[in-house]
Amino acid sequence: METDMTVGSPYRVILGFTMPIFIGNIFQQLYNMADAVIVGKFVGPNALAAVGSCGTLMFLILGFLQGLTAGFTVITAQHFGAGNMKAMRQSVGSACILSAVVSVLMTALSMSMMKQILHWMNTPPEIYREAYGYIMVICAGIVAQVLYNLLASILRALGNSKVPLYFLILAAFLNVVLDLVFILVFHMGAAGAAWATVISQGVSGVACLVYIFKAVPDLHLRREDLRLHAGLSAWQMKIGLPMALQYSITAIGTIMVQAALNTLGALSVASFAAASKIEQVVSQAYVALGTTMATYCAQNTGAGRWDRLRKGFRSATVIGSIYAVLAGGLIFLAGRYMVVLFVSEQVGEIMHLADIYLKCAGAMFIPLAVVNIYRNGIQGMGYALLPMMAGVAELIGRGVVALVSAAKGSYIGTCMASPAAWVLAGALLLAMYFFIMKPHREQEKQA
């Protein structure tokens, strides 16, 4: 089921590869949403606010690890595109060892610092206990999260986006069942939802591992593959760390938004949490396009197909822009009515506040598409530091707006923090893309 993305129509290749990732991301968001829905409905608004307030921390911790594993497998995709299977297997073995070491370190670090982090974030006292219980379970399950993300990234590097989808669907259904059991039967509260997420993610990771052993002989590692080679490991860290820091920089900005939001009270936190869940589901198309572009660009860079890279960026931009218009219209017209999925108390107030955020985000979906497409595509080409600088711009945009909003006690200002970041980062990424591609266009003209 591997796909060579160096041949065929870029539109068809990108769209065909993106759709399974998009559907998989939707299911992943749905089982994250299931936590919020079940907690909000059966535990209460404070528990929903607790889960929502932990979303930014999850993004910081798990996003760092996701960026790291994605960076490791950029090299895997480049070797696959170049047809060098031996080097590809060595990159996989090295990625497995590095990911295991970093996972253990991140688990220890995050769990030991969590109380202080929640204090820094101005977590409201009425939701602190539920928030702490939820995020500590998530941190304890970091290894399960990394197992799936690494193996799914490896499969996608070889052009296989369908199998990770199948196992995500399995995890989504399992998560809903476990949510209901842990919360309704065992009365575990928000922590029960976290256990459901960790267990489900672990099952999907093990399923990916079994599939690789049974169906992907190209990934059957030999003893000599399971070692760290100085040059290869340094190369992987050179790409992986900036990608991980990119996620972390974005997450730090989001934490600043959450800290500003926490000063406005539990009702604003719950409303923002519900609206964010809705926006995250709709915007998974951009995440999927970004994942596709990382693999597409990595394979074509390995094959030296610079002309095909340009066609791919154009194709992805058209696809992303069309979807942005359709998704933005949906958010404007119907987004607020989805809030009833999350709450059964104070519905009117929460619906009104959630609608403000949804309209702010929906109006800026095209810049969000640009950020995902060009950031991941440039990373796939092997440029890790440049996209990280765009992440710094995103942090500045999001942080400045959040700080001003917190000072003025403005909810709508807080809602505009992320859209402002998307505009600033998107403009910078476009400039970077044209800068990178300029010498290759000139070489083709001279040829």
TrEMBL record:
Domain of life from the UniProt record: Bacteria
GO biological process: monoatomic ion transport
Transmembrane segments: 12-31, 47-80, 92-111, 131-151, 163-186, 192-213, 318-344, 356-374, 381-405, 411-436
A Gene Ontology molecular function term of the record: xenobiotic transmembrane transporter activity
UniProt main location, coarse: membrane
Keyword Glycosyltransferase (UniProt): no
Subcellular location: Cell membrane
GO CC terms in record: plasma membrane
Lipid bilayer topology: Multi-pass membrane protein
Similarity section: Belongs to the multi antimicrobial extrusion (MATE) (TC 2.A.66.1) family.
Functional note: Multidrug efflux pump.
Name under which the protein is recorded: Probable multidrug resistance protein NorM
Provenance organism: Mordavella massiliensis
Lineage: Bacteria, Bacillati, Bacillota, Clostridia, Eubacteriales
